[in-house]
Amino acid sequence: MPDSRAARTITRRFAFGAVAAVLAMACAQFAPAALAVGGSPPAGVQPLGASSPGTAPPPARTDRSDGTTASGPVRAQPPHMPFYVATKGQTTLYLLGTLHVGYANDYPAEQPFRKPILAALDASPTLALEISPDDLLFSQEDVTRYGMCRSECLLDYLPDSMWQKVEARMRSNPAALAQLRHTRPWLASMLVETYDTLKAGFLSEYGTEAQLQDVYLRARGRIVGLETLNEQISTFTKLTSAQQREMLAQDLVQTPAENVADVKELHRLWRIGDADALKAWDDAKGQKLARSKALAASVDNRVVYERNRRFVTRMLAIAAPNKPVFVAIGALHLGGERGVLELLRRRGFVVEAG
Fold first, then answer.
1. What residues does 96 pair with on adjacent strands?
2. 3-class state of residue 85 by DSSP
3. Average pLDDT, integer, range 68-83
4. 242 near 54, Cβ under 8 Å?
5. Where is the segment annotated Disordered (predicted)?
6. 126-184: per-residue pLDDT in tens?
7. What does the alpha-carbon distance between residue 185 and residue 241 come to, in Å, rounded to a whole number?
8. pTM across the whole model
9. What is the DSSP string of 152-185?
């Protein structure tokens, strides 16, 4: 079994697919020691009591365990998050854009979500995630089955020049490099990015889905998936070799430090909660990293836009008058001209920020 702490670490690409969280599990099989490396969140969400490496511990502070400060009571506020309400007649969909990882301070214990989000959860007989919790139980095995080879197949997929870039990137982690040789390019892409962003300090236990389930299951219990595990895995396994190489090539464009900066910026924008701003930022980044515009567009179509259409079809099949559905999917699926919010508008829904 993968190291449990290692399996919590994750990366930027995982605002698109819940199954990507499983890639950290697979990654932990390769080099548990490397994946156990922690990191410090941005200053705005630094865990209480944490200090950066190489700095002196903070001075002793007055005990405020009763929830007060020198100026009076204080209460941590949850982030805004991308949250929208879509209505058509008596049919209501609540839509929350998720990150599959986060920091503890993203979900204050006394109130993990804003009140409108909690009220929507309470009003919804059904919580719809990308993949049902039952499917996720079996996802580790499928990622390994479809993403890895007995042979050193990555060398067969890549031209020598690209393999040399992979070697250079992973030179400081020979155990991980040895295992990357046995991956297909789509999985190698995910893992290279994961290794690059280890020090961002994100944990899957503070992913939005996990936190939603903790709240939702206390009072209700019907949680469904908008796609099957096989459908989400197939999103990657059915990419052509050229498309998979494009994914990996994009991950090798920037330095590890630049990739870390990106995942922190994604997290910052998610906390603000504007789905269109999030998607615009990601689109601009995609344009900058694309090695082949045509291949990059075809990957986005399969990984993002085809799934957006699937999500909308499935959520509408679940929805019924006077029975709201709370939908929680990767934040980058919501915004933009081909995002879930716009697709709902085209189906006659009125979509408003929550």
1. 83, 328
2. strand
3. 72
4. no
5. 46-80
6. 999 998 888 777 667 778 888 999 999 999 999 999 999 999 999 988 998 999 999 99
7. 8
8. 0.82
9. -HHHHHS-HHHHHHHHHHTTT-HHHHHHHTTB-H
